Amino acid sequence: MGYNANIFVTPVDxxxxxxxxxxxxxxxxxxxxxxxxxxxxxxNWFKSAKNVKKTCPTCRRxxxxxxxxxxxxxxxxIEGLSVKCENAVNGCKMVLKLGDLEKHxxxxxxxLVECSGCYKIFSQSDFNNHRKKCAxxxxxxxxxxxxxxxxxxxxxxxxxxxxxxxxxxxxVRRLESNLFELRVQRRIRAEATRAEDFRESVWDPDYSxxxxxRSIVHLSTxxxxxxxxxxxxxxxxxxxxxxxxxxxxxxxxxxxWQDVHMLLATALASGWFRDEQRKTLDNWLxxxxxxxxxx
Length: 295
Fold this sequence. Notes:
single chain; about 300 residues; mainly alpha; elongated
């Protein structure tokens, strides 16, 4: 809403009136078609046209709500116009610039206030004197009752707010828990898919692992994908024989020492083998370490 034209000392030019509220422009914003409206009026206009095409209130051209701009020069001009105090009807004779009106009203002695004790209306300056004399306003018991009522109202509002907050926190925790479960399920499905793809594309039950350097890395990669749970289609005894073959053939080859070490360490970290087999794997690793030091 704009400024009431009646507060201005001189008649206001019609070009300074908002096309929506018909009052003097307040925080004017211009549209690309050239028409200007109060900022608040324009916001309300666009809100009312939420589900329909937005148009200029005057020329009805299609517009975009974000394509409006503040008219700073016009704002400065309007705020520089002379106005009467809004309390002129109560006796205030002050004439000042529109831009200074708000600060003046904060301390204007002619502003009307209601006594919370006797509920009579006074000007601000008269109320300062009345406040000292009003029996009901100075009645401690009456004051305490009002304060108590306010405290109870605030406590009730605080209780409702806390209850609403607890409900919101519970909702957030539930949603976070659901989100976590969904992410875990998605990860499990993804890992299962990758494992299946790996099995189909990499694992070959007829391949003789250990007869070539390439098979060392191949076997190490496969075991690392299923450290905790050996796939049921894999024979661990056959895998152990392949590990022994890799160790026997390549542990003395400097070029493949690291690959063999990685394979045996991965196998030992898995849960695939019996205790005696794990002891053998550990001994092989110690042998590799000693040979590495000697070289």
